[in-house]
Design brief:
410 residues, mainly beta, 5-stranded antiparallel sheet, 0% helix, globular
């Protein structure tokens, strides 16, 4: 393992009389593609935190030997964040390659994720990182085999655990109709993992090409989105899955209507404490620049859909929430997320807040990325809310042009 260190750089925005909110942004780590890329570069995925507040993530490229990406840890000490590479992907038939998706912790502190390619058949992998002493050991616990019986190319979705310790995720392609799958992984008492395709998407109201992962609802069902699908508009759907007498059943929850109603839900869903779901669409809305939406839980597992906000773009607002751009909801019902572009003349993306007051939401831009060497640009990942601050990644720009990890204090 290697360690590198960076002193935080702070950028403060205090603008009044506009949609901008007083907040501060700090670049806490600059990824480096110029000196061999050993620490990884192009962080498409967001961050997760352990109980001590250490941050973990993945990069799409980088690593000392192969440039297939890395898993890394960021640790804060004395006001300085240090990065340590926990694993370098080596690709080929024995390891994964190109990590788009974020990481997930299990109850024992082990990490899990997917790679877009690599593995036995080249269609991607599910991997596990186990901590042993001061080191981590990576194992490929499944290699996707692709059409027709297995998924292929898991994209940006976060893996989810159920109460029994089973692991669930999605693949963008593969399955019976080559338009994506939902898979389940179960672990034996001896620790071996077995993968099973529990749902193959077929298009139309079944949906096709899931990018986001699954969210476990209060009803115990699994909820997710697909990029396309819906019998009328092909603008994407929200679906749910549940197991009945050993058979997995898929149901349509909502089909996006395009236009003002939102188009192409690339990211997964976030649930609040009352069982409502929130998400984003990449396009659509009043300005065709993307939306934030809500599915309000009602009786008999029914949901009511509404658009909470339509992005305006340009110099004053963000536009196009992207692949991993889901949202996070705090205990007061406020919503936070990122957009891939918009926010200033540089058009490098934003961090935004939807603040809840008397049942209505007001949007504020907390930070507009400025790019160059002093800031990141083009965030594709959602945010981590930790002790009142927001943490995330931007894919490009920064001191070495290879992306950054950042912190925003609302």
């Amino acid at each position: 393992m290697r360690g590198t260190t960076l002193v935080m750089l702070a950028v403060t925005l205090i603008l009044s009389g506009t949609v901008w909110a007083a907040s501060s942004e700090s670049v806490i780590y600059n990824f480096d593609s110029l000196s061999g890329g050993a620490d990884g570069y192009y962080p498409y995925a967001g961050l997760v935190a352990d109980a001590k507040g250490n941050l973990y993530g993945t990069t799409y490229n980088g690593g000392n030997s192969s440039s297939y990406g890395v898993v890394y840890e960021l640790t804060l000490s004395g006001g300085t964040w240090s990065q340590t590479v926990l694993h370098e992907f080596t690709g080929g038939t024995t390891d994964g390659a190109y990590a788009y998706s974020p990481l997930t912790f299990d109850s024992s502190g082990n990490l899990y994720g997917t790679t877009y390619q690599g593995g036995t058949y080249g269609y991607g992998t599910v991997y596990e990182l186990k901590k042993s002493g001061s080191g981590w050991t990576e194992s490929v616990i499944h290699s996707f085999a692709g059409y027709p019986k297995d998924g292929a190319y898991p994209y940006g979705g976060t893996l989810a655990f159920d109460a029994s310790g089973n692991l669930y995720g999605t693949t963008h392609e593969g399955g019976a109709d080559s338009v994506g799958t939902v898979f389940q992984m179960t672990q034996s008492k001896k620790g071996a993992w077995t993968e099973k395709t529990i749902h193959s998407f077929t298009g139309s109201n079944s949906g096709e090409y899931p990018i986001g992962g699954l969210t476990v609802g209060k009803d115990g069902y699994f909820y997710g989105t697909t990029e396309y699908g819906g019998a009328t508009y092909n603008a994407g759907i929200v679906y749910r899955l549940f197991e009945s007498r050993g058979v997995w059943v898929g149901q349509l929850v909502y089909a996006f209507s395009g236009g003002a109603g939102g188009t192409y839900p690339y990211a997964g869903l976030t649930m609040d404490s009352t069982g409502n779901f929130y998400g984003t669409t990449y396009q659509g809305g009043a300005n065709n620049l993307g939306t934030v939406f809500k599915l309000k839980a009602g009786k008999n597992n029914k949901f009511t859909y509404s658009v909470l906000y339509s992005f305006k773009g340009g110099d004053t607002d963000g536009e196009y929430p992207y692949y991993n751009d889901g949202v996070v909801v705090d205990s007061s019902g406020n919503i936070y997320g990122t957009t891939y572009q918009g926010g200033s003349q540089d058009n490098y993306g934003t961090v935004y807040e939807l603040k809840l007051s008397s049942g209505k939401y007001k949007e504020s831009v907390l930070h507009a990325f400025t790019g160059g060497s002093s800031d990141g640009c083009y965030p594709e990942a959602g945010l981590l809310l930790l002790k009142g601050n927001l943490y995330g990644t931007a894919v490009y720009c920064g001191a070495h042009g290879a992306g950054v990890a950042f912190e925003v204090t609302p």
